[in-house]
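Show me any protein, keeping tokens residue-aligned.
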Amino acid sequence: MTLLRYIGGRVVGVVVVLLVIAVITYAVFYLMPSDPAQLSCGRPCTPEALARASAFMGTDLPWWRQLGGFLTGIVAGRSFGELECAAPCFGYSFQRNEGVTQLIAERFPLTASIAVGAAMLWLVVGVLAGVVSALRRGAPIDRAIMTVAIAGVSTPVYLAGVVAVLIFGFVLRWLPVSGYVPFEDSPGAWFSHLLLPWTTLAFVSAAVYARLTRGELLEAMGQDYIRTARAKGLRESRVVVRHGLRTALLPVITVFGLDLGVLLGGTVIVERVFSIPGLGTLLIEAVSGLDLQLIVGLTLFAAFLVVLMNLVVDLFYGVVDPRVRVTR
């Protein structure tokens, strides 16, 4: 199997998954009793006005034709009456009078800032804590790390966020507890506004990574190839990093890729706790207002991020572990 053939097969799989998600999402909302055109019709909503709104939005068509128009719009763009939606068009929010793609583009940097920053923090802290705990198995530092990890795993994200706001925002008054400042406006303010969201997510997720890394590293260090490496006289640091940790990181990479994809799709709870208007907040508003075009666009965009990260993880496996490397 060549590298290009392998990548092509994975890309085809991504497209199929996205198509299935789009069909299911459209079918679910098509079966709902609420009519998006009714919500946009205004008051009073006469039958004639409702018919015009339905024709303009395209909701008078069968759901499968609506789905076909939506998918075509992503590739080639589409129009809603006199409104033009350029590709990639994820639909048009008639309640907000703005294209879904533009709405996603406006909110995505906020969610990406939270997700990527928190992911880097919990990956580094979690893996380092897991390595230290595994190498000092049974020692006081091992028990301390695992105690904190259990506390992190057991703590809901919203509770960790509320406690962080109370302590660092209102008691100590060290950090702002709400809002968002773009990086280009003030890097310092951007960092200070996102530090609490990052720490909140990292506290909960790093605990999972610490326990996972510890368990995988302990298992790897007991394998025959580790004993062989030690018998050859290799330094212990080289044995741990080059042989033990490299194998132990495979499941960590898998979980990290999926977690990052889900976070980029919308850090709903953290955005609500810290009043950050990202994709998660936008999705909640769309569901509350039954904004069908916006819901479907956000759902498909979030699914794309998840499957994209999964694809990246699969391709990265060959770099980390030669046993799964794609060969020509």
About this structure: The chain has two domains: 3-100, 104-324.
